Amino acid sequence: MPVHDTPSPLLAVSGDVLIAADRPDYAYAPRRTPPRRRPGRFSPYRRLFATPGARAFTAGNFLARLPMGMFSVSAVMMIAGSRGSYALAGAVVATGLAVTAVVAPWTARLVDRHGQARVAVPATAVAVLGSLALLLCVRHGAPDWTLFAAYAATATTPNTGGMSRARWAHLFRDDPAARHTANSFEQAADELCFMLGPVAAAFLCTALFPEAGTLTGAVLMMTGVLVFAAQRATEPPTTPRTPGARSPVRLPGMPALLAVFLATGAVFGSMEVVTLAFADGAGHGAMAGPVLALQAAGSCAAGLLYGSARPARHAHRRLLVCVAAMTALMFLPLVAASTGSLAAVAAALLPAGAATATAPTMVTGMTLLQGVVPAARLNEGMTLAVTALLGGIAAGSAAGGWLAEHVTPAAGYGAPVASAAVALLLCAALTGTTKAPTS
């Protein structure tokens, strides 16, 4: 057999280059390396829910939180339909809100001191019994005072959103970027619940029977809290009360921060009432719900996008920028309303909603609050913020309603502009009064 004296090519590896020992025509052949995948826009959220137990407690919390947007609408439709008085229905709901403002911080303090599962489950059971008592009183024609007493019992409802935020803060106590993403997700979840809740309540009360919204809300809330409380592995540890410890409301910077939440709530409350009045005045009252949903959708989308972005380093500067943007965008509905077109107002509410109460402004406000309030009182501090927000909603609703009735519905959009401007001034006053956390 002939002997082949041509050797087979030998390849030597040097770095990322293959060098052929005897073939100069392909002396350099670059090694193929797989391309690096760029992280997606929502990678921070995937990382968030990769945490063991996160999906389970989030699912339970969502079930428990959805009725928050159902109960007031369900109560109004149930009482007004049975007693023929929207004034009575509104008074009952307003009384429940006032009692909640007093009771909720105490419930949150018990949660911080004794644990979420030990307090949230019995507190929710009392609230559910109050809702069912209201249903029975309406159904069987009980005296009006029983409606007030029954609805006041629902004030023990725990702040499920605050408990969820406290879990994220515990899980990512050493990761500010993850906490920013978690706060953004929670705000988007709040907005989604308050967007879907009234729609679900109105559908149930009209398609089935007047009490269906209240009954469904009670079942969902009790089920959700039981699922949430069962996830003990992610529950923050309890801290015994320290003698002489100050209430969160007395901490440096907290009063000014709560004032910002109060003014921001006024933006949201006045916008809602004025839009209802404007749609009714334009002869399209049935379209008020979908129009307001556009504002909520803009806020929800902005919250999710804000959470996926890398935040600026100083939380106080972020809050100032967010409130300034909110103030500027509040002029859009005011200008659109001057045209008299509901379609123009609807188009303006979408971008305006991207900066209003429950989007970047609230996300950053909660981040600042977590830097002010110690971990042992965090749920109480966040409940105080929600209470301030609800107080602002009530005040804004009254101011917007007065303007819409005594001036014009279009002029009523001046109320959210004024409220946003007050929030901006208060935010500027926060400089030097809070410990601004960095990300």
Automatic annotation (TrEMBL):
- SUPFAM superfamilies, per this entry? MFS general substrate transporter
InterPro entries for this protein: MFS, MFS_trans_sf
Residues passing through the membrane, by range:
62-80, 87-107, 119-138, 215-234, 255-279, 285-307, 319-336, 342-369, 381-404, 410-431
Which UniProt keywords are present, listed alphabetically?
A: Membrane, Transmembrane, Transmembrane helix
This one is known as: Transporter
Native species of this protein? Streptomyces chryseus
